[in-house]
Amino acid sequence: MPLQSFARAALPLAVLMVLSAASRADSGRGVDLEFGNALLTRAGGANETPDARGTSWLRLGQRRSPSGNLYSCPLEPPTLQEIGEWEIDGHVQFGWIGTYGDEDNALWSRYVRWDSGLILGLLDLALRRPADGSYANVRASRISSDDAFFDAAFGRAGSYKVQAFLRELPNATSDSAISIWNGVGSNELTLLPGLAPGASSSGQVAAVAAGVTPQRLQVVRSKTGLGFDAYLTPRWTAYAKLSNEQRSGARPFGGAFFYNFLFPENAGALETLRPVEDSTLNFNGGLRFVGARWRMDVAYDGSFYRDTYRRFRFESPFALTPTRPGATSAPIYQGQFALEPDNDYHNLRSSFTRRLPWNGELRVSAAAGRMSQDDGLIAPIDCSGTFGVDIDGSGVPSATNRFLHNCSDWNTPAALSRDSADLRIDTYSFDSRVTLQPSSRLNLRGGVRFNREDYRNTYLAYNPLTGDYGYITENGAQASIQAGALGTWNPLTSPSVITRVRSLPLDRETHAADLGADWRLAERRTLGLSLTTQRNEPTHRERRRVVEDSAKLSFVDRSLDWLTLRANYTWLDQHGDRYVPDPYASAYSTSLPGFVAPVGGVPAFTVDAMRKYDLADRREHKLDLMATVAPADDMTLSAGLRGDWNDYGAQIGRQAYDRTGAHLQWEWQPSPLTHASVHYGIDRARLRMANVADVVFGPDGSLGGPDYPLNARWWAYDKQRNRTAGATLDHRFGPVRIDAGWSLVDARGLTTYRFDSPVALAYFADGLDGARSGSFPATRYRVDSLTLGLSFALSPRFSVRVFDYYERGRVDDWHYLGLDTARVIDHRVYSDGGPQGYTTNLIGVLLDVRL
Amino acid sequence: MTTRAVTLAGTWVYRLALLVVLTLPSVHAQQTREDLARQLPASDLSGEQAQRSARQFLAAPGFALARVADNPLAPQATPVGEKVCIACHQLESEHFTHTVHALGLHAAAKADPAIPVCETCHGPGSAHARDPAGKGLILGFTRSSATPVAQQTRTCLTCHEGGARDHWAGSIHQRNDLSCSDCHNPMARFSGDGLLTKRSINDTCAQCHNDVRMQFSRRSHMPLAEGQMSCVDCHNPHGSLTAPLLKTATVNETCYQCHAEKRGPFLFEHAPVRQNCLTCHTPHGSNQHALLVAPVPFLCQQCHSQLGHPNDLLTPASLANGAHPDERLMGRACLTCHAQIHGSNAPSGPKFHE
User: Fold this and answer.
1) Across the strands, what pairs with A841?
2) What digits encode the pLDDT tens for the residues A1-12?
3) Residue A33 to residues A165, A640, B52, B201, B235: CA-CA distances in angstroms?
4) Contact, A549 vs A523, CB < 8 A?
5) Which of A51, A131, A691 sits opposite B305 (nearest CB)?
């Protein structure tokens, strides 16, 4: 169903439902459950005045939650205005902010867009009608045109709620984009004046790039939504939510014109700037019943993604040169991408729960869904005239000039086996769960689960115009550099070419079962054990069956007044059936009748010893300790220790991935007027992997064989360390409130490697100095920030807030080393210069008015 | 008009009382719980307030079945009515009055005198009123309360069963002895919505999961620290079909909620992408670009050792400032050419080049 038709049908339906009944967002479904922005989380809050009287006359100080955390002090009760039967409370915070320093930096403004000038900090309006429990709320904030929200709700407590929202969310994708193209943000990139498509030298491109002013790129999500929840009766509720999201902007992307590393001064690797212009309509609705014995929930989710563009085109500036002496390359320069296809998603699910004796429950959930798309397919190549290698200089494809090809045989959807994708995945899931409490000291639970994904239809890469199977690689660049490397198989003209000819349906099934028990050792002390087994059965993967067995021990102790201790230990073993390194044969031309093995045999797809880590044998030990301590009535100390150790049974592939961490947090609430906190955390990650280079294209995939010799092995070790620290202080002196915050984020990463011999290296000569190990420059990310705020009440209705938020960021990422001096390196173009450090200061003066 | 006058008079009486209490805190503090118990007004369960109301509404369906909660630790206790509770818990009442619970319960109590207010959650109050210090005589939801956590949650679920809480029984939070009141505090309005214990959802979750919150400050992260997203966009803390409390049946479906363009299906798919987004991405924060779990190209080289170019070891000499720059290492590394790594819908895209 076209999007517009759906919208036309769904919107009136939603509105009708709203009028007849009406919404309440809950944590069980959907997104957009809370609205905020960086101002409110970092610098706002002038209106929030704790009640100096505390929580209770009967007891000084704050009580603690069952887990031991101190409750916050309630805010001062609002002063309500009465209009008829309605009571109104509200305030508006507005004023001026200014940003100074590197305000366009993408790390500083990753998900926030500060515009110096007047802003609406927060409008918060609440209306209540005590007579029947009706209410209406409005919250809104706008710190720039790309960063704002408006959330309004009305309803009657326990009866219905209608909610509508608008929000703008910015996402900076680059602050240093240098484009050698016109049309950034559109789906058509054309080279800047001064550059000839397919005929420019590296120097010419570099000269043009040097004259381009770097620009900031971002993608803005604009969302609107409408939802309702309604009690139809005390037992039945209905709910629905409809939202539409539009994304608009651009981000760094790619563009392949074959290997520049292999063909210096030839080919091309282009970091283009792709458009992001799409919309997604989401609908969710359902009906629930909650009775004394039964509960039921039946719901439908629909999501409809629509991309403004089907294709993204870009021009390559570089000329291509064939490797064959005396020949010429066809002048191809047009690159293309198929952008994400429009897709539809439907999911119908239901859940039934029955109370059982022994305070138990039996729950059965089932769902069926469908993901589908039928986008029109773009042609295999976007060129006119010819592509390939002209060996006789005629410029005309012929039997003798056989490496030159007519674009017209490939630049049309008629060159495809079908003109649209027509793909679908059907999903099914079933889950059943039982919980029982045979005694007050024992809880039992168990469940089974089943998931299935069925791919419908496959795509065959076949060109009825030529009789070829396969596809044109890298926008025709490979065929225009390497004579004959068209990338297609033909039973008559190229019966030994190995190429991809089919899509790969990734059907899979998952079966899982679990059993567990929790023993109450004492009133506030529990020991739990959970046993789980899960069998994953993928198709067209290296394993047909992967089994995950795990056991988890849990211990909770709240028996001491001053301590809550939670400890969890998990042991997990992943194993499976035989690992087949090449399960993809059916998708390649080797599976076609008429295929003739090349001289020397069909090359091994990969090394036999490779174990892809999602399917590999794995042994995991995971430990998590959490403690909440009350050292004094007005303090809470939280501490955590955790470790997750993964050992993979792989000679080649991921071998180990270990993560450990600790954190400590102290909170102090000596009075309703004072709050302070300090926190510190550290965590480390260690990842070990191994690989092996190949030396010849042979049929032997064994490690240590002629194709993958042992001396071509290499290992990499990535270490990451993160430290975070922070402190906050909030205190009131009469009408004056001061607040201060400091935080530090300090991350450091180091990737080292070692290898058996220079054969392992991409550049053999690099290993001739005798060294067998090395490291990349350390990556670093450090952010220091400081907030200082002062709020003072001018009168019961008016208060002023002045704040300063300072942030300094430092970043080093070796991927971008050298790109600060040159964005054009041979036939490579890098539009994005990578993340940059920054220093910024945000100051603001906000007036808070109680309405 | 009369009602307004009564309200005004009540307000002044209250202010006067407040002044006395504030100026004489020591006198107040010297009162024992027993003293307070003796001063309690008579029970008020007459429905008089409902009869006084100028207009009559039916109780909202969500509160129509609200009744006095069971308290197994005080089986003989009987309801006393809100007025009796407020006699001692005046300040609590002031804060509670501005919550959506109070709004609904008060309106419902006016419509149907059988609907209690305080005692809907705290159980019958007579035993507690007689012996305010008696442990467990009133349903409490705090650390010091004698009410078991299971009883606390059961009380809340009396009204809030089903929906988002459908999978509470057996969920990780239930098994770890969490109470509703670890995250929610319905006695005052601390948060914009949801009656949370903290100002926001993220602050509430961070009480226990501060380590996860720290991950959101890494170089690439979801926009939680900026307030644009909350933990419950992906997780349902009340329980779900999955162990990490995801609110959909699979990781990928959770991601597709905001990244619908990745849903496909694509003409050519990348198997681990379809299997699980977390094969390559870490959801909360990463020191790498785009939430990747390891730096490219090593991320890709954990799985790709095919003949040709994917399995060569590249060294810093292949960076842009090195002796022989190589696009397999610089910038986006593998993704410079294999840009449509999440799946390609181009007939010439089996290797995600187009």
Assistant:
1) A100, A806
2) 444 444 444 444
3) 10, 28, 39, 9, 11
4) no
5) A691
Q: Collect all residues of chain A within an 8 Å Cβ-Cβ radius of residue B63.
A: 133, 157-158
Q: d(Cα B151, Cα B154) in Å, to the nearest integer?
A: 5
- d(C-alpha B217, C-alpha B195), whole Å: 26
Hey, are the CB atoms on B305 and A724 less than 8 Å from each other? Answer: no
Nearest CA in chain B to A518: B175
Identify the closest residue of chain A to B160 by CA–CA distance. A290
Contact between B69 and B158 (Cβ < 8 Å):
yes
Choose among A691, A762, A817: nearest Cβ to B320: A817
* Structure token digits, residue B335: 């993704």
Whether A151 contacts A35, CB under 8 Å: yes
Distances (CA, A) of A623 to A293, A553, A642, B78, B206: 38, 10, 5, 47, 19
Q: How far apart are CA A849 and CA A213, in angstroms?
A: 43
What pLDDT score does B40 carry? 62
Q: Which residue has the higher pLDDT, A106 or B9?
A: A106
Token pair of B143 as six digits: 């650390």
**Distances in Å between the alpha carbon of A249 and those of A31, A108, A183, A593?**
22, 18, 12, 47
Residue B192 — pLDDT band, cuts 50, 70, 90? confident
Angle, alpha carbons A650-A655-A660 (nearest 5°): 150
Which bin fits B136, alpha (ψ -120 to 50), beta or left (φ > 0)? left
Which are the contacts of A169, defined by CB distance < 8 A and separation ≥ 6? A111, A147, A220, A221, A223, B223, B228
The secondary element (H helix, E strand) that includes residue A742 is: strand A736-755
Report whether pLDDT(A628) > 70.
yes
The tally of CA atoms less than 13 A away on the side-chain side of residue B76 is 3
From residue A574, how far is each of A451, A497, A549, A578, A772 by CA, in Å? 18, 38, 6, 13, 33
Residue A427, both tokens = 């999903």
Predicted local distance difference test score (pLDDT) of residue A16: 38
- Alpha-carbon gap: B74 to the closest alpha carbon of chain A (Å): 18
Q: What is the mean pLDDT of residues B103-110?
A: 94
A840 pLDDT higher than 70: yes
What are B230's two structure tokens?
Answer: 């909350």
Can you tell me the distance from the alpha carbon of B337 to that of B296, in angstroms, rounded to the nearest whole number?
13
Rounded distance, CA B36 to CA A212, Å?
79
Distance from CA of A775 to the nearest CA of B (A): 8
Reported as a single tens digit per residue, the pLDDT across A464-499 is 999 999 999 999 999 999 999 998 999 999 999 999
What does the pLDDT average to over A217-239? 96
Tokens (6 digits) for A814 = 């070796």
Q: For residue B91, which residues of chain A lie inside 8 Å, CB to CB?
A: 53-57
Q: Give me the mean pLDDT over the B305-316 stretch.
A: 92
Residues A388-409 have a mean pLDDT of 95
